[in-house]
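User: Can you predict the 3D structure for this chain?
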Amino acid sequence: MSSSTRVLIGVLLVGGVGCDGDGDPASPRPDAALPDAATPPDGEPPADATPPPPDAGACAVPPTETWSGTATRSNGYYPDTISAVVTWQRTATDGCLDSYSVTGLATYGYAIPGALCAQSVEPATHEVLVTDGGRLTVDRTVAPASYLGVAATRWELTWHCLFQDGTTVDQTFLGGGTWLDAAGRIGAAGIEGEYEIDDDVACGPSGVPPCTYTWSFTPG
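Assistant: Here is the predicted structure, written as structure tokens:
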């Protein structure tokens, strides 16, 4: 082999160009020199990776499984009052936001002012059901945690008006109504507060103003 041939071969080898069996330059392997564009640099997650759920320890306070207590809507002038003894059960948590459903028993009182008869309603009580749609949410992002709650229970009942001569007047209608309309911060005693409504605002979907909402729920 001549010296000029050896030089040419050396140049080809140094330049990294090979030949296939037909003498044409060989194509580079597609995975030999090109980096994998989908592989992120070491220590960095892929751009479309789903972030992990927040650690429970990231919330300002731990969750409470149940809240139990009473809530009442009382009317100042018109006897139209409903109260409920209930338990709120935690059903879901999204980050630091807890959602609760409610069960318990509601009691309703109704009367027409000035009626010259003994008045009562039947049935005066009704079960508070999850399907009634009562809602309580607790936000534990900061301490003290904040809460927001609204609940109502309605059922068909009969109002009785018994006169002294023994005659009665009965009327059947949908009674009950809103017994919780609450918002605030959770204090040392739990979820509690009072909210007064004046003459210009209706007391929930049913209820004659003025009225006052009061509520008190403690853990467990």
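Residues 60-219 form one domain. Residues 28 and 206 are 80 Å apart (CA to CA).
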